[in-house]
Write a structure and sequence with these properties.
The longest helix has 14 residues, at about 50-65. The chain has helices at about 35-45, 50-65, 70-75, 80-84; strands spanning about 1-5, 15-20, 20-25. By secondary structure, it is of the alpha+beta class. β2 and β3 (about 20-25) form a beta hairpin.
Length: about 80
Amino acid sequence: MAKQRLHPETAEASSEVQGGMVMRPSVEIKLSAEERNELERLARGRKVWRGLSDRAHIVLLATEGLTNVQIGSVLGVTNQTARK
């Protein structure tokens, strides 16, 4: 994936180009320590509903700045699932 910097007057953030399509950057997510701990607990929980565990993983990866496409690739889900 190639990073593309856009002119500051036309866009505020850099975008990723994949397959000829410009991918929008993920929304910046900031978590408190308590929120992060809870998401990490849910993500690794063995007795947590699978969908909830996946959602926790998605949010944690998004906080690291990954795009929906990257998150989908890491978790083996579609980018549509990652963006929900």
